[in-house]
Amino acid sequence: PPPLVLLLAPPRGWIYWQEKRNSDAAAQTEELHAVLTDIGSGRKQDIPQRVDALEKSHSDAVRASAMLTEAALALEQNNRSAAIAKYREIVGDKGLPQIYRDMGTIRLTALEFDTLKPEQVIARLEPLAKAGNPWFGSAGEMTALALLKQKKNAEAGRLFAAIAADSQVPETIRTRSVQVAGTLGVDATASMPALQQQD
After folding, report:
1. pLDDT above 90 covers what percent of the chain?
2. Whether pTM exceeds 0.85
3. Which of 69, 179, 185, 190 is the most buried (most CB within 10 A)?
């Protein structure tokens, strides 16, 4: 029988394949950085082809970033339908890490907000519209606006106050939440002592 070390050692072909994948992923990450740099500098002539190639990456992070970039470029060209289609693809891609799928859900819902029924917005964002979730600010804000459409002002006001109280939420959303909560009769200013000190 072959020595135990040979049975435990991975096949040479598998090692080569893993090394190649790692090398490819590193090169694709560099290419993604170059694509984003070129977009920022206004050099966009071959960007669609380069992004399309990156969407075929074995790296989930590179593939997801390329897909999000394609959707953003479509929006920049006022092609909402293409952006919506790409965000739907991201949301439905179970092979992508959840954080990218959640980002797709937020951006898709923001684009579709005016065409969705309030209950659709609330149901779609329910897993993300919770304090402590990384997307709580955006998801909570859209959920609260959907509650307002349903005339559930008290519930919306409480949600805006909860957003204002969450220090992980970006300050612009927290400030906006305090203001809207105030118009709904909920004083959320106590949730933001830092802002009170600035006034």
Report:
1. 50
2. no
3. 69
